[in-house]
Design goal:
Radius of gyration: 38 Å
Shape: elongated
Oligomer: single chain
Strand content: 15-25%
Mean pLDDT: 86
Low-confidence stretches: 27-36
Order of helices and strands: HEEHEEEEHEEEEEHHHEEEEEE
Helix content: 10-25%
Number of helices: 6
């Protein structure tokens, strides 16, 4: 049995221990963290006292140059002494604070301060106030004065890098084939369409985009224009490659230098890409370059992410215009010069000719989009997707979402399309 007196002692000890713990935690919480402040006192300059005059009221100070004041002009230096009137005085041998010098006037003996000099001298006129604990009651040549400023010694990374990020160039000229390329910036991408489930470009998640169903496309550069006959001819000469068989006499027709090269096989395009140090875009990269990201991200009231659909059917918008797209409706007998295409029909990123004129190879196999289930003998790892339509195709088949394919009987024989290339953007 525990006696009542013992129980009272135990309870009293527990109460005392609890109170001590609370008081200790309060003391700890009241202690200022060493990281509570983000600035510290830094010496701006140090000046040795080399002369004392007129009853210790005038002192000559030799100030040695350092990185903080080496680039200051005479006018800027004078401004520093005008701003501040009180300077601490330290003993040279001990580095102990001895007092404060109150400056009434500053005299610069030199009219011009040579930046090559290691030091300069000034005369300070004022009063000396010794520290109460100091044994030195007057300024002597065994002392020096200094000026201090407050500097940040810690800065949040976001604050440090704010304004320091150099954005990538909107366009570049490739160093190999000298073609202009435009930037397609990184971000989520909404592909395909969501209204026609029997079509090969149907995206089951189109009307309800989420982070998990959108494509994350890294930044890349894409050729602003399709590769032309003249550019492809230059590649053939540089690599001693045989020209396409439809080039009579091994040359493209006269006057068609700037027309997009067409009727190439996928393997021929691969060889050009390897020579140029580029690659063939996949179909999602091609589509994003043609129509933009397709969505705008926003934050809901519950802090969840939402996406507004802004996808368009054509590079210039949702309505077809034969002035912007060279298709069957344009009633032309062959492609037109890539440099004569309307800039009004360019994509949101500035790529031109991504609607009609010439079909373009992509590196993607002709497969169903995720979540879509229809049957077609062509789906699989056999044929490659072709995008962009052409001058002989309809507006529907030349839209930014239209898909076709090539590779029959194989990718080395089917002369199905032309091309443009991409290079990855590396931070």
């Amino acid at each position: 049995m525990i006696r009542k007196d013992d129980m009272k002692k135990v309870l009293g000890f527990i109460i005392l221990l609890t109170l001590a713990t609370i008081l200790h935690s309060q003391e700890e919480s009241n202690e200022e963290s060493p990281f509570a402040t983000t600035s510290k006192s830094t010496m701006l300059w140090k000046g040795d006292v080399v002369g004392v005059y007129k009853n210790r009221m005038w002192i000559k100070v030799r100030i040695y140059r350092n990185q903080k004041i080496s680039k200051l002009s005479l006018k800027e230096l004078k401004g520093k002494f005008t701003e501040k009137k009180e300077y601490p005085v330290f003993q040279k041998s001990t580095e102990i604070l001895q007092g404060t010098f109150l400056v009434r006037e500053t005299i610069f003996e030199e009219k011009n301060i040579n930046s090559k000099n290691q030091f300069f001298e000034i005369v300070l006129v004022g009063d000396y106030l010794p520290d109460s604990n100091s044994k030195i009651k007057e300024v002597t040549t065994d002392t020096y004065i200094a000026s201090f400023i407050q500097e940040d010694f810690y800065r949040e990374p976001d604050a440090f890098f704010k304004g320091r990020y150099t954005p990538p160039r909107k366009s570049i000229f490739h160093n190999k084939d000298r073609k202009e390329m435009v930037l397609v910036s990184r971000g989520l991408f909404l592909y395909g369409q969501g209204t026609d489930p029997v079509s090969d470009n149907f995206n089951p998640y189109f009307l309800d985009p989420k982070t998990s169903t959108l494509k994350e496309i890294p930044s890349f550069y894409i050729d602003k224009y399709e590769v032309t006959n003249a550019e492809y001819s230059y590649f053939l000469k540089q690599t001693n490659t045989a020209p396409p068989p439809h080039w009579i006499g091994g040359r493209f027709p006269s006057g068609e230098d700037d027309l997009p090269v067409i009727h190439l096989t996928f393997r021929e395009v691969e060889k050009y890409a390897a020579w140029a140090g580029k690659r063939i875009p996949n179909e999602f990269e091609w589509e994003k370059a043609a129509r933009g990201p397709g969505v705008i991200e926003y934050v809901n009231r519950d802090e969840s992410l939402g996406y507004q659909i802004i996808a368009t059917k054509y590079p210039h918008g949702d309505e077809f215009d034969p002035l912007y797209c060279v298709t069957r409706e344009s009633k032309v007998e062959k492609p037109v010069s890539v440099y004569e295409l309307s800039t009004e029909g360019s994509s949101p990123y500035g790529a031109i000719g991504m609607c009609g004129n010439a079909p373009e190879w992509t590196s993607s196999y002709y497969e169903l989009y995720p979540g879509h289930h229809i049957k077609n003998f062509a789906f699989g790892k056999i044929y490659k997707v072709i995008r962009g339509g052409g001058f002989s195709e309809s507006a529907k088949h030349s839209s930014a979402i239209a898909r076709s394919y090539g590779g029959i009987p194989n990718l080395g024989e089917d002369r199905r399309a032309g091309f443009r290339l991409v290079v990855d953007y590396r931070d």
